[in-house]
Amino acid sequence: MPVSYSTFERLKDRGVAAYRKGEYAAATSYLTEAAECMVELAESAETAELRRQREEIAAELIDLAKDCKRYESAPPGKRPRLRVKDDEDNEGKDASEWIAKDRPDIGFDDIAGLEDIKQEIRLKMIYPFSHPELAQRYGISVGGGLLLYGPPGTGKTMMAKAIAHEIEATFFVISPAQILSKWVGEAEQNIRKLFAAAKEEAKSVIFIDEIEALVPKRKSDSSTVMARVVPQILQEIEGFDRKGDRALLFVGATNKPWMLDEAVMRPGRFDTRVYVGLPDAPARFKLLEIHLGKRPVGEDVELGALCDHLEGYSGADIKAVCQQAAQAAFMDAMGGNDGRTISQQDLLTIITANKPSVRPADLVRFERFMETGA
Fold first, then answer.
1. What is residue 74's predicted lDDT score, i.e. its pLDDT?
2. Does the global pTM surpass 0.70?
3. Of 243, 110, 242, which Cα lies nearest the Cα of 164?
4. Which of 25, 26, 183, 221 could, after both became Cys, cross-link 4 (CB 3.0–4.6 A)?
């Protein structure tokens, strides 16, 4: 019978409790069993990122169990320092140790295409920031939640940075692994610290990639950590004072929106959901201009014709095509042909050898989500 996350947490909690009571033999046993459960859970993880996170937790639990075993016979002065954090330690830890903030220099002009999406974001997110008096007059809330979803490599992270740049906001980049914790209560405290740090800024954007790893659908056998984390995030989003002198935009990005907990999709939470799809012909043309613009390109290169061959390719795919074509020309130049430029044939050869990374079936899945929300 497959192990449940609740079984893992019960064993882990007993191990931590035994350690704090000085019952090191029991702590070793419980923590070892918890690590074995987490290894099994990692094998059944739905995403590579979730599998990696669970493997890291299992490894740390094994190290902790080894420390507990050494603790049994070690004199007080030789006892190893264990990584179990209590509430006071968590509250006192400086959030700047793990919360990274930035001021992006990427704007909407640096993103190829997606004009409809940019305009939607301007109307719902940027204009209320830049015209607060009008927003207040018409009862438009400032900030809130924004979900960017779509296939991999379509520019969701760049879009989040551009939003922060357009509204001159501090940009917080956080990964689910930085927030989630194996110790009881720490994940919720990390979320509180994150939002507290955002409240210190006049305008802030919190960006979390692969947000489905942080707020996945809750099931009867899912982690009790998730059961606490999801409400904590929703409480922080809804409790942020949007009418005061601080403005917050919470941006999540995902390639699998159907894996998100339904509660985060309700009004007042992720108020705006934006599909970031594959680039259209004008966007593909601009992407080629961006990625070939500073490279030596032959007169035979026709960007318009290349756009036709690149239909169905993501922005990341097009960038890779340009890089590989440049590498082929560079290798010839290294061999003595230093006048070599990137030719149309170079690009066509690379396109033929590299199929689109996004499958048609993936696009159908996104279309179904847009229609049904599931």
1. 61
2. no
3. 110
4. 221
